[in-house]
Amino acid sequence: MEQMAKLKPAFIKPHGTVTAANSSFLTDGASAVLIMSEEKALAMGFKPKAYLRDFVYVSQDPKDQLLLGPTYATPTVLQRAGLSLSDIDVFEFHEAFAGQIMANLKAMDSDWFAQTYMGRKSKVGTPPLDKFNLWGGSLSLGHPFGATGCRLVTTVAHRLKKEGGQYGLVAACAAGGQGHAMVIEAYPQ
Description:
The protein is of the alpha+beta class. The chain has eight helices and four strands, in the order ααβααβααααββ. The model has no long low-confidence stretch (mean pLDDT 92). Its EC number is 2.3.1.155, 2.3.1.16. Residues 47-185 form the Thiolase C-terminal domain.
């Protein structure tokens, strides 16, 4: 703890709180995902891992809401998929920084934020932590640019299979105030 306390802020110096100790570290990585219809996959001899039910991309003001993409994208993708937060069995959110995850969880649990910034009547709701990033997230596993999204999606597919769930939600922030979310459904075994 003493060593981490000595780390310098990465952004707003000297008072910032984001340091190397609470940021996802960049790692090497590569990824490939085949996305195709179930019929095509079966015809080619592949066994699907999951269905991609819906996805959204969002953007918001990078000045005040730079890393809040998951907060904005989650209710939209759930509505489009005809689901609610309580229908989701597995959550995998990209963790750019510990503070970014905490800010998203707080914003998702705030009626004030939903009404003031999102034009919603009530809060999104907070994902249950006993379903959230259970196999480790970007803070513990690293953040290979260009591969993190695939890692999140495949983690959801594998968790759904292992945990016997039906629906998973992937969400991430992105540079410039962007974000995305997607609903993944388990493939019948």
